[in-house]
Amino acid sequence: MAQTVLMPQLGESVTEGTIGQWLKKVGDAVDKYESLLEVLTDKVNAEVPAPVAGTIAKILVENGQTVPIGTPICEIEVQGGQTETAPVADAEPVQADEPQSQPSKSPTVAAETDDGQRGRYSPAVRRLAHERGIDPALLTGTGAGGRVTRDDVLSASDAHEKPTATVAAPTPKPAAHESTAVAAMVPGAPAVIDEEDTLQPLNNVRKVIAERMVRSKQTVPHAWLMVEVDVTGLVALRTKLKEEFKAREGVSLTFMPFMIRAVVSALRTVPSMNAQWNGDSIVMKKRINVGMAAATDRGLIVPVIKDADQKNIVGLAKASQDLVKRARNGRLTMDDLSGGTFTVDNTGAVGTVLTYPVINAPEVGIVTMESIVKRPVVVGDMIAIRSMVNVCLSFDHRVVDGAEAGQFVTTIKTELEAITQETSIY
Question: Does domain 2-87 fall into CATH 2.40.50.100?
Fold first, then answer.
């Protein structure tokens, strides 16, 4: 019996995936739950387990190809029976909204109005239509069952932008709720290549990082601010506990769990920071899931600590170090990479004292913890040597104003400066 494996759901609002690397080839035996391939998610190659044991019979999608969720990607031959379709383990069943290889066999019909029918358009289609100033309800869909696809939106956008031979095409106007700052993608200046230079092709991870960063900077109005924080008490507490903590808990006690805990308090105080931009609405997230930017040899990735508000310092230390370790070993699961509501970046680990991070859209904020340095500081009427750190925040000005952003970083400052050698980590 041959079982067909489908492209799994890669996370919330994700409609397609890229094959990063096949870990098995045709003819190889594979055990159930053994790593089958790497699929390129938002910022990482995540290993996907085999749903059944057997032998790889066919590979239907090659390395580097991008296909919609639910697309058959390979066949695994097992003993007995007829061909069946098996989703990858832990994948969520979805409809193939945007088939890219074959036209729909059903009659083409006009798309329904988006009001009350948001499910008619995938998140990718809604986002693209919003960016291009196109109303998807006015388009005739060419996808399955008449659904509007990305190509439909792009075609409509091109029709607006390209003038005919006799009539100049009008400039498309954005929807009433759309920011006029959302502009068409502008190609960068070409590189100057000398004879002694070498060209390094982009790997799949770097391509996705580039696309996400360009999209964030071109579609999100970034604003930035910073506060100085006196973490002398925090440094003293960590120095006091780190040896005992390592021996008892089996992980190192770093500054990151304290920073995440302070961010959680700030998100509770300013809930508009724990939100997502949704075009014509703002999604206020109930759960607090903190993403951590982590550097790996394949690029920057953002694994997520789910329900970070329900963990103490010990729990955050274990969760964060487990995620970073598995990220660098390429052992993250799809769930580890989805559901983030806010991102924290420990840029101080590489020695920086001031950074301007790029927002991990559709989240509305990202905060950095810079290097902790000793500096002379005025305390009362005296000058003292204190351990100081800069905390930097980039925020989406469509959702959050300066007063709220200021309250957010001030809460982080207050939480960190309240830590003393007597603070409990349990």
Answer: yes
- 397 is a catalytic site residue: yes
* End-to-end Cα separation, the chain, in angstroms: 53
Each domain of the chain, given as residue ranges in start order, spans 2-87, 97-177, 207-417
Contact 5, 86 (CB under 8 A): yes
Residue among 31, 280, 335, 401 flagged as catalytic: 401
- 25-57 pLDDT per residue, tens: 999 999 988 889 888 765 455 778 888 999 999
Q: What is the pLDDT of residues 343-392, one digit of tens each?
A: 999 999 999 999 999 999 999 999 999 999 999 999 999 999 999 999 99
CA dihedral 6, 337, 276, 216 (to 10 degrees): -90
Superfamily for the 207-417 domain:
Chloramphenicol acetyltransferase-like domain (3.30.559.10)
Phi-psi region at 51: left, alpha or beta (left = phi > 0; alpha = psi -120 to 50): alpha
Told to judge if 222 belongs to the known catalytic residues of this protein, a careful annotator would answer no
Q: How much is the pLDDT for 306? A: 97
